[in-house]
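## retry 2 of 3
previous attempt timed out at serialization; input unchanged, resubmitting
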Amino acid sequence: MTLKNTADRWGPVSQSLHWLIVLLITALAIIGLTMTDMSNGPSKIKIYALHKSLGLTLLVLVALRLAWRAYAGAPKPVAGTPHWQERVASLTHWALYALMFALPLSGWLFNSTAGYPLQYFGLFNLPKLAARNEELAQLSRNLHEYGFWLLLALVLAHAAAAFYHHLFQNDATLTRMLPGRRRLASAAAEPQPAPSSPASPENRNAP
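## retry succeeded, writing output
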């Protein structure tokens, strides 16, 4: 089994990174939407710190995924996909990558310009991206907030397109990002032996 991507499906490394990023974005969204309504106290500080650390983890995973994609390549578009759909899918993918970089970086910039400390899971401190600046803090905060809603819209559109292809187009757009499908697809593609005719010598001589 190859770890790299093939012409017709994503490999296990790309699949693992994809679903880890999906889970991470889901956790970040839930935490980010609930933490602002918490009352001030130690619990809120811990939740904010967790949100920041998960955001930095997202930044690292997205960088790893892009590096792996550059090394391992990407599958070809599913046969029969119209050219305009290929273009829309490609633009959506690259917009998702851009936003998955922009959100952690804008959060890091806001944290720096607002004068807050930044630790990675309490293990070590990270440097500030800029000096304290109220105007830049407000700008980076707005970019982080509005960028999240744009990312959410693109993720939902991306998921809806995958399910549309799976349910209505009956193609492999979704399944080639799922593990354990190669063996099933190969078995389905293998020609099955034709049943023996009742008039064949084998059947006439059978007991």
